[in-house]
Amino acid sequence: DQQVKQNSPSLSVQEGRISILNCDYTNSMFDYFLWYKKYPAEGPTFLISISSIKDKNEDGRFTVFLNKSAKHLSLHIVPSQPGDSAVYFCAASDIQSGYALNFGKGTSLLVTP
Amino acid sequence: DTGVSQNPRHKITKRGQNVTFRCDPISEHNRLYWYRQTLGQGPEFLTYFQNEAQLEKSRLLSDRFSAERPKGSFSTLEIQRTEQGDSAMYLCASSLGLAGVAKNIQYFGAGTRLSVL
C-alpha cells in the first residue's frame, strides 16, 4: 500500500514561473517530510525538509508547505529555472521506524525556456 | 569526495547467481539505509543499520537477501539465487542518526543497477 502519493507524474512550467509539486500521505504517524530531486543515473539529492511541528519551511527558491489536517504537502519553486528539470520525490518518515523513508512515485518536472 | 559511495555501479548477472553490493557511507554517519528502486517507482525501503546493528527489515527483504555492516562502517547487500524480479537500482543512504529530526536527513549514493538475465 502506497502511504505517500504523488498524483501528477509530470509537470511542465515555463522558466521564471512558479512550479508547484504536490504530495499526499495517509499515515498520521509521519512526523518528518522531505523532498528529493533526482537526475538520471544519479541517486536522489536532498532538497528541503519540514518537521510536522511546522507548516512552512523556506530555503532560497524552494518552499515546502505542510497541511497536517489534510495530510498534504507541496513544494514551491520560484522562479523556476531550466536546471530544475528533474524528477522530484516526496518522502515521509517517523521515529518509530528509524526514519526510514517512504517515497512517492515522483513527479517529472520540465522547465522550458 | 566525502559522499556516499556505492560499488559496483552496474552489475549484470545470470538468474540463479549470487551478487554482492558494497556501500561506503559518509564517515561520521552512524545510520545506513538500503533501498530498491524499480522503473516508474520511488525508492522502497529494505533495511537499515544503526552502527553495526541491523534494526529494521522490510517485508520486501526476502530470505535470499542479507545485509551486513561489520564494525559499523561500510555495508554489503547480498542477493542469493538471483531472480529476474530482482532487477532494480539498489540505493544506499546514510544519516547522522542523532536526536533531532534535522540530523536524520539521508544522503544517497548513486546506486548499483542490477540486471538479472
Q: Main traits of this protein?
A:
heterodimer, A: 113 residues, mainly beta, 6-stranded mixed β-sheet, 5-stranded antiparallel β-sheet, 0% helix, B: 117 residues, 7-stranded mixed β-sheet, globular
The total count of strands of chain B amounts to 11
- List the secondary-structure elements of chain B in sequence, H or E: EEEEEEEEEEE
Give the biggest sheet of chain A: 6 strands, mixed
C-alpha Rg of chain A (nearest Å): 13 Å
| Helical content class of chain B | under 10%
User: What is the helix/strand order of chain A?
Assistant: EEEEEEEEEEE
**How large is the radius of gyration of chain B?**
14 Å
Measured by DSSP, the beta-strand proportion of chain A falls in: over 45%
Q: Percent range for helical residues of chain A? A: under 10%
Low-confidence stretches of chain A: none
What characteristic shape of chain A results from the CA principal axes?
A: globular
Average residue pLDDT of chain B: 92
The helix count of chain A comes to: 0
Number of beta-strand segments of chain A: 11
Can you give the mean pLDDT of chain A? 95
Helix-and-strand structural type of chain A:
mainly beta
Distance between the termini of chain B: 33 Å
What share of the residues of chain B does DSSP label as strand, in percent?
Answer: over 45%
Walk me through what this model shows:
The complex is a heterodimer of chains A (113) and B (117). Helices cover 0% and strands 53% of the residues of chain A. Chain A is globular. Chain A is mainly beta and 113 residues long. The termini of chain A are far apart. In chain A, a hairpin with a 4-residue loop joins strand 7 and strand 8. In chain A, strands 2, 4, 5, 9, 10 and 11 form a 6-stranded mixed β-sheet that branches. The mean pLDDT of chain A is 95. By secondary structure, chain B is mainly beta. In chain B, the strands form 2 sheets. In chain B, strands 2, 4, 5, 6, 9, 10 and 11 form a 7-stranded mixed β-sheet that branches. A 4-stranded antiparallel β-sheet of chain B has the order 1-3-8-7, with no helix packed on it. Chain B is globular, with a radius of gyration of 14 Å. The interface between A and B is medium-sized, with 27 and 30 residues.
